[in-house]
Amino acid sequence: MNNEKALLAGGMTMLALATSALVVIPYLQLRDVKPTEGVKPYSAAQLRGREVYIANGCVYCHSQQPRDASFAPDAKRGWGRVSVAGDYYYDHPHLLGTMRTGPDLMNIGVRQPSADWHLGHLFQPRAYVPGSIMPSYPFLFDVKDKADPGDKVVNLPEAFNPPGKIVVASATALDLVSYLQSLNRTGAVLPAPPAAKAAP
Ligand code: HEC
């Protein structure tokens, strides 16, 4: 090697190009992004639930990124409009996901607002969706003989309730459900179009 300076200059140029493409330009594109309509900061319970979602690997089977009609029929599936940067304003890190073994959950709070349904489904997905391949999360619940004051009893379909017992949601399960219920990115993205002009 007899031209170290050229090598160094080439290396630095490549580094500068990569830094601008991967850091500077995305930063400039995204720095003025505002939350989309209706997107609010998560509450303390929802943030705890978000951690439970991450810890239990929900993100490996569920995306949070409805796609454009040219990629997938997500709107027809009822998963919501195409997501935009402002939808993730309060998500650190975002949970876009890469796999869709289960449905996209970006708007599950709208599609399925019932806490009872979510709790029962987490305890035993097959109680609600026969043949579901989603794992059950029984460790987020207590199975007891009778409810104590303040317990959130899960109303499971008869056939799935442990015989003679009751199923009570843990605080962790309640946090997770509160996070799922908060998933709503259906607000308008662009300013509403001006009202159509009356025909002359
Ligand atoms: C191995 C993959 C897998 C994992 C891990 C997984 N799910 Fe699922 N999930 C599915 C599948 C498949 C379905 C569709 C069948 C059903 O509803 O049970 C589903 C359905 C759902 C639904 C209903 C969606 C709808 O549109 O009705 C919710 C809510 C949900 N999952 C939440 C979770 C949460 C929360 C976690 C983590 C605690 C999780 N899932 C982990 C595969 C998975």
From TrEMBL:
Source organism superkingdom: Bacteria
Domain Cytochrome c: from-to ranges: 44-184
Keywords from the named record = Heme, Iron, Metal-binding, Oxidoreductase
Methyltransferase keyword on record: no
Q: What is this protein called?
A: Cytochrome c oxidase subunit CcoO
Oxidoreductase as a keyword of this entry, yes or no, is yes
Q: What is its EC number?
A: 1.9.3.1
UniProt GO molecular function: electron transfer activity; heme binding; metal ion binding; oxidoreductase activity
Say which enzyme class the record assigns.
Answer: oxidoreductase
